[in-house]
């Protein structure tokens, strides 16, 4: 089992396993985005980018 270093971008795209903490952080981010319009707007702008451009953000 290979774990990607914490915060390494694109780990899942390369087929590497991610840490449970990374999944928990993602869930927390989604919950905050549901409640905070500014966070939601920023997240939508990031996710609206192509995968190529997102990895440089």
Low-confidence stretches: 1-5
What is the residue-averaged pLDDT?
A: 78
Calculate the terminal CA-CA distance, rounded to whole Å. 28 Å
User: Based on CA inertia axes, which overall geometry fits?
Assistant: flat
Number of helices: 3
Helix content percent band: 40-55%
Strand content: under 5%
The largest sheet, given as strand count, sense and whether it forms a barrel, is:
none
Tally of DSSP β-strands? 0
Structural class: mainly alpha
Rg result:
13 Å
Descriptive account of the structure:
This protein is 54% helix and 0% strand. With 57 residues, the chain is mostly helical. The protein has a domain at 20-54.
Compact overview of the structure:
The protein is an all-alpha fold and 57 residues long. It contains three helices and no strands.
Which terms would index this structure?
57 residues, mainly alpha, 0% strand, flat, disordered N terminus
Record the SSE blueprint.
Elements: H1 20-35, H2 37-47, H3 51-54
Helix pairs in contact: 1-2
